[in-house]
Amino acid sequence: MNGFWWKIGGALIFLYVLIGGLVIPIKPGITSVTPSNAKSGEEMSFNVVGYNTHFLAATKVRAWLKLDSIHAISAKEIQKITENEAKFTFSIPANFPVKEAVQPLSLIVDNDVDGVFVQPNAIFATVADSSTISGEAWKSSGIGQFSVVKGIKFPYRNILNETIRNTFFHIALWFAMFILLIVGVYHAVRFMNTGDMIHDIKSASFNKIGIMYGVFGLITGSVWAKFTWDTFWTSDVKLNMTAIAMLIYLAYLVLRGSSSDHDRRAKLSASYSIFAFVALIPLVFIIPRMTDSLHPGNGGNPALGGEDLDNTLRLFFYPSIIAMALLGTWMSQLLIRYEKLKEKVLLKNQ
Amino acid sequence: MKKFLSLTFISLCAVLPLMAQGDSLDFLRSTGKIYSVVIVIAVIFIGITILLYRLDRKLTKLENQIKNEQ
Amino acid sequence: MNITKVKDIFIKELSIEFRQKFALGGIFLFATTVVFIVYKSFNNINPREWTILIWIIMLFAGLNAIVKSFLQEKKETYLYYYTLFDPIDLIVAKLLYNFMFLCVLFLIILGVMFIFTGFPVKDYGLFFMGSGLGIFGISIVFTFVSVISAADSGSSTMMSILALPLVLPIVLLLLKITTVSVRLLVDTAIMDDVMMLIGVDFILLGAMLLLFPGLWRS
Questions:
Q1: Which domain covers residue A239, as residue numbers?
Q2: pLDDT by residue (tens digit) across A105-145?
Q3: Do A337 and A264 belong together in one domain?
Q4: Is C141–A283 a contact, with Cβ atoms under 8 angstroms apart?
Q5: Which of A16, A81, A89, C164 could be joined to A77 by an S-S link, Cβ 3.0–4.6 Å?
Q6: 0.90 cut: is pTM over it?
Q7: Coil/strand/helix, residue A283
Q8: Which residues in chain A touch residue B11, judged by CB atoms under 8 angstroms apart?
Q9: Are residues A176 and A285 in the same domain?
Q10: Is residue A291 over pLDDT 60?
């Protein structure tokens, strides 16, 4: 692994992630709709605040309130205020095609600059007369023929906004941490089998960089949580579990620091790190699935996939993991070379 | 000890701007919270820099040791 | 693995324990004092606090008790053991002894807690099954870590540094099972947690049995 190209490769991929991850814009979205309640049979205008939208620049803005896959009404009047603000007036029909007294309606906005964007359950309509079921007024034209906009953009999430870019830095950090720790454990196993000190050095270096990544992950996660949920520490299971994992690995560092005898230290820390890793497997992968978590991938879903990681995010997320892992390997390599040199000097002195 | 200090330093760097809740720092939450991304990248960068700095110091020590022996 | 040898070591451990009555008494005293302090400071303990306290007391009393399982004997004694026994026999015997000891300790703590604070558990089967499995996991971790800390520096500080983070996942599972068994929480899938506890126990046991012979040689 003394080659040169993988280091350059890691740096270049990281650069690609850094630039692409920061430059590519977020898709337009709707931040708020006021008022959020409506009554049937009334004409109501809603003030819509968008994010990254271009209402003024667009020549043709259209909007619909959607009830279900076949029923929707289109806006009667559209008044553009600024690029990010507009007033949509709908006349809500007196009769609904469904029976419930309160109906959530989704707001769909489409224009030729931004393309189409949706705010699910934007408005809750109270149905005054729910006895008459009629879908007559809900047959709207034009829905389905949305403007097509070219170029790649990151998806818009309501509270996350721009922080969705942290996926490439914060979450990728965790995956890279796992890769490094797995390499560390692999070398610990090799050490237990062969008794070769080089594997002890490798295992310790990879573990150290892995722990560093883990601590960065905790700090950056805290920052992200502060911005999105306004607390530094949430009761999120994944977060707490990883904190425990870090505690276990910090104990590993204490163990390595405490012993002066090299052979004994190597043997003890190798067996502790294998044992710790084995204890971590159920911890990090199974237990977080038991309780609700802020992170994607709970309730039995796979951690990746679904809505939270769409294809444009993947375009940068996977390279980011590879880049971080490569850079981590590079740093571990430096530590390994340092430790080897130190060993040599020590042996010469004796 | 040094490790602990540098860790505290990184977390302080990351956290201090957020502790202040006043208007003066409201810009941190502006433009779609883009500054959280900035802080996250800054934390990673500062952390790696501190690692490199420490490694540099340790290597210098080792180099001097080797030089003295010759 | 030789069952008679395991039995021999087990009985030897037991007889040493009973010869040093003060150690046994000390642990009993520790448990009682802690429960009493907790009782006096809370005065009225509700079930939620009860579930948390019982495991915290158990954890620290257990840590105190297990520390000496490998630390109490001298290096020369181990050299002697090394010539006599297979490492697997030794670790299995130690583990079984520690497990039994922790179970007795747990029952003592439960008894003392019962006198002072009552016994809010509703689902006895779940509670004792979960506790047994959890204590088995805890004793695996403690035994293994006491081997490491005995080989390292022989100090008990190292033991608590290394052991406490490692038992955290088990304790979290235990807390959940206990909470369900006192009916503070209704969870139909609690058996999943029990299965997970069994899984954790087996994984840890396997890791220990694989790693111990290598450690033992040093």
A1: 161-349
A2: 888 888 877 777 777 777 887 777 666 676 666 766 666 66
A3: yes
A4: no
A5: A89
A6: no
A7: helix
A8: 219, 222
A9: yes
A10: no
